[in-house]
Amino acid sequence: EKKFYLSQTDKKIAGVCGGLSEYFNLDSLVVRIFVFCAVFIWGLSIWFYILLWIFAPKCPDFDGYIS
């Protein structure tokens, strides 16, 4: 079963785009460009990003160290 988690290793602000890129198996740069375009060019609400940041769980198997 595939679940969405905030990324703990591939994050710039909160890990939302990194988590989406892991979930959809895409490059994180592609997801970040899409989110930027969706929010600033197409006028979609940034509230969706903020809600994911607040309510999405962090990855449970992350121990805090990047190998």
How can the largest sheet be summarized? none
Unreliable spans are none
What is the ordering of alpha helices and beta strands?
Answer: HHH
* Gyration radius from CA atoms, angstroms: 12 Å
Q: How much of the sequence is in beta strands?
A: under 5%
Average the pLDDT over all residues and give the rounded result.
84
The shape, in one word, is: globular
Q: How do the strands and helices of this protein lay out in sequence?
A:
Blueprint: H1 16-24, H2 28-41, H3 47-55
Helix pairs in contact: 1-2
Please explain how this structure is put together.
The longest helix has 14 residues, at 28-41. This protein has helices at residues 16-24, 28-41, 47-55. It is built from three helices and no strands. It is mainly α.
Compact summary:
The protein has helices spanning 16-24, 28-41, 47-55. By secondary structure, the protein is an all-alpha fold.
Please supply descriptive tags for the structure shown above.
single chain; 67 residues; mainly alpha; 3 helices; globular
